[in-house]
Design goal:
115 residues, five-stranded mixed sheet, Transcription Regulator spoIIAA
Length: 115
């Protein structure tokens, strides 16, 4: 199964809903392209909704980290929403959980960006 992405905007925040597998190859390139497009449009607040992501490999983790770094280097913020137990555990094991702001509730995640 490939990765599907839909982007919506709520209160000036781009919410990217991901569905499928985040693995080496086209899916990582798709995330990279989407983040670069958001940055190019002047977006500085991005929320990645991972509720329907079934699997992430090391390349996928690298892409999430690269997206976070790209946003941060341009004065933006990237946060994660609705991690599955498997992805939550993976971020804990790799110590990436300490880097990302992670939320289980979309309203709280949106509020965390401030005005």
């Amino acid at each position: 199964m490939s990765l599907k992405m839909t982007t919506r905007e709520v209160k000036g925040i781009s919410i990217i809903d991901l569905s499928g597998r985040l693995t080496l190859g086209e899916t990582c390139a798709a995330i990279r392209d989407e983040i670069h497009d958001e940055i190019g449009q002047g977006t500085r607040k991005v929320l990645l909704n991972l509720a329907d992501v079934s699997y992430i490999d090391s390349a996928g983790l690298g892409e999430l980290t690269a997206a976070y770094t790209s946003m941060k280097n341009r004065g933006g913020q990237l946060k994660l929403l609705n991690l599955t137990k498997r992805i939550h555990d993976l971020l804990q094991i790799t110590k990436l959980y300490t880097i990302f702001d992670v939320y289980d509730d979309e309203k709280k995640a949106i509020a965390s960006f401030g005005s």
